Each structure stands twice: as C-alpha cells, then as structure tokens.
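Long-time lurker. I teach an intro course on protein structure, and each term I like to show students one example going from raw sequence to a predicted 3D structure in token notation. This year I'd like something fresh instead of my usual example. Would anyone be willing to generate the tokens for the chain below so I can use it in lecture? Attribution to the forum is fine with me.
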Amino acid sequence: MDNAGYTTLTRQAGLMREMSTVANNLANLSTTGFRKEGVIFAEHIKALDGNEDSLSMASANVRLTVQQQGTLTQTNGRFDFAIEGEGFFMIETPDGNQLTRAGNFTPNGEGELVTPDGYRLLDGGGSPIFIPPDARSIAVAADGTLSADGVPQTQIGLFTPADPTDLTRQNGVRFQVRGDVIPVEDSAIMQGFVEDSNVNPVIEIARMIEVQRAYELGQGFLDKEDERIRGVLQTLGR
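-- Reply from a regular --
Happy to contribute to a lecture. Here you go:
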C-alpha cells in the first residue's frame, strides 16, 4: 500500500472513533449529569527523502469532555441536587474519590447519602454526609449547607480539578482526577433539581451525518486505489 492509502486508513480509523463517540453521546441524551464527549484530531507530518512531498498522518486518540452547563430540571426530590455554575460533587468509590455532576442521591441503610451505584457523597472536608433518621425536613442552602429540621448538619462540598486536563472519564457521569482538586465557592446548589445531559441532539445528529459522509468518501478512495493497484499488477503479470 502506498502513502496515500496509509494516510486514508489513519483518517478512517479516526472517523470511526468519532462516530462511536457521537453515538455514545446520543445514547446518553437522557442520562442525568452526563457530559458530552468529543474527539480531537492531530496531524503528524514527516518529511520524505528527495523531492517527494511530505507524508501526513492523522490520529484521533485524545477525547475532550465538554463542560457546558446542562439544563436544570425540577424534580422536587429532597435529595436531588443540581449545581448551577462550575464544580462537581465528590463521591467515594472503591477506586478513590471521584467527581460527578449527577446529583440524584438517596439515603442508604446507614443514613448516608449515596449515588444510585451506592457511592457515598462527601462534604467539604471529605466525610460522608449523614441524614438523621428522625429528620422530618431536609433543606439545602445555595452554599451547600444541609439542615435537618432547621438545624445545620454539614456542608456539601463542591470541587474542581486544579488542572482541567487532569479529568479522566470513568463512565458517563464519573471522573477521576489525576492531580489536585480545589474547592469551588462561586457556584450554587439547587435542591429539588437535577442537571440534564448537556448533549444537543440536533448538533450530534448533524455531526453523525457529516462523519458518515466523510467516511464514505474515504472508503470510496480506498476502493479506487485497490482497483488501480490490481490493474497495475495484472498489467505487469502479462
């Protein structure tokens, strides 16, 4: 295969990764706290010997998480929380503390607020948040202060990575931080709301069509190159 064929193959591989990413975004259109993901293409250029043109290869190995605010939907749930502004909730997992924007929590058997997967929500000091079993009312202020029957109990922590590039996606709504995290003070917590996915279906479907057309063009080029090479070999074999 010549250089044009190898270049096209790297492009096709990148387009396949982007198609998979777009499909995953659409699949999580209704996932609370989901963050849209994108693919970053990189071009690698190498000079060739003599008077030949340079060789260009493309790769799509870096994924970008879009941190745009999603729509806040009112649920009136006592333990449904949404973040208005920057920052993440911190939860305790078997793989260490992780960040999430999905604020649909519920008390477990011990009275601790946990995610649907059973991971505990942490306060500003990194401790689990406990709900008194005899509490008749639970209120959360904008600064995250949680009160039971009017008595302050703790403050829900909001955090963000010191370096935004340190975020590593674990699944659609959880992120591991490789470096340090810092508290967030300028955002507000809304009780009785959850944040919807920030995926725009119109944009994603339009992008899927663009990627599919680009892939078809590349496949058409590879098919023609294959026919050309076969024709050359047949001619030389006569």
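Some talking points for your students: The chain has two domains: 3-67+199-237, 72-195. Residues 201-237 form the longest helix (37 residues).
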